Every structure is written in C-alpha cells, then in structure tokens.
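call fold(seq) -> tokens
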Amino acid sequence: MIAGLLGLQGAFLDHIRHLESSGAAWRIVKAASDLKLIDRLIIPGGESSVMKKFLDEFDMVGPLSRQIAAGMPTWGVCAGAVILSEGVDGAPGVLRAIPMAVRRNAYGRHAASGTHGLRIPLFKRRRFPATFIRAPRILVLDPSAAVHCRWHGDPVFVQYRRVMVTTFHPELGEDNVFHQYFLKI
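ret:
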C-alpha cells in the first residue's frame, strides 16, 4: 500500500512522520500520472483557492475525481476538506466527493485559531488535541455521512464511504491515530 500526499501546496510534510510511524509507504503526488502509483490520498491543509488553481492548472480535477469515485480512500484536512466538498461558500466545490457544503475560514481570522481537546468516540479516547487553523465550517451534511466528532455542535470529523475529512489538523500533533485509521479505510 502506498499513501499519496498531494504536494501542490499546503502542509503535506507534517503527514510524512505519521505515515512512517504507522509503517506506510508514501509518495508526493504532483501530477495526474502520479495517481496511478498510489492506493490512497491525503489532501493536506493549506490554501484551498491556491490548491484549486493548481489542480486546474495541472489537469488533475478529472483524474482525481474519477479515482475517488472508483473507491480510492481519500482524506481531506482543513483546506483538503474544502476541496472535497460538494459546495463551498455557496458555489460548487472542486472534487465534489463528499455530500456536504462548507464555508471557508468560518471561525474567524488566524488569531482565533487554536488547539482544543476533542473527544472522539471512534478512537475510544478521552481527548485528542485538535489544532484548528482558519478552519472551514461544515454547514450542510448529507445524513448518509458519518459524523465521528463534533466541536461546539459542528461536525469536524466526517466520513462518507471511503472519503474522510477533518476540519482541524491531526498531523500537527504527536498522535498518529488518524493516520492509522485512514490507512485502514
């Protein structure tokens, strides 16, 4: 199994240590041809509008959408969740791989970002330190999607089939439980 890290823009390097500590092989994905070399993909946090521009510029939207629709496990982290959403800020999303609508940077400016302890029943944990950085807010979510965690009532860890999203950054902490889970879906 080889996990791909979309390396067009964003914080993809922090995922490497968690993949390695989970025993996974990985490669950076920068072109549509790289998609044939991976079994699953992490779309990292970063700037979703810049990511969208690069996905369009490198003709990756179609091939990536088809591979996800065919069942490739995919994880969107923060901006990656925005890229995977059906709707963003009232407009159509980029990959439209998960039936939800989001608002970018919904919780305020960078100064409002921070780390909060989340209880995640799926992992049977008391608290997971979740770092939110200008996080998107999930406004609408199809009932067929599983909500694994909420923060102040909002879904922040969601899974739809083999696509999962976190509106926070698990890769910034020391615990690789999210990466281990992703490698099993």
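Helices lie at 13-21, 48-57, 61-69, 79-84, 177-184.
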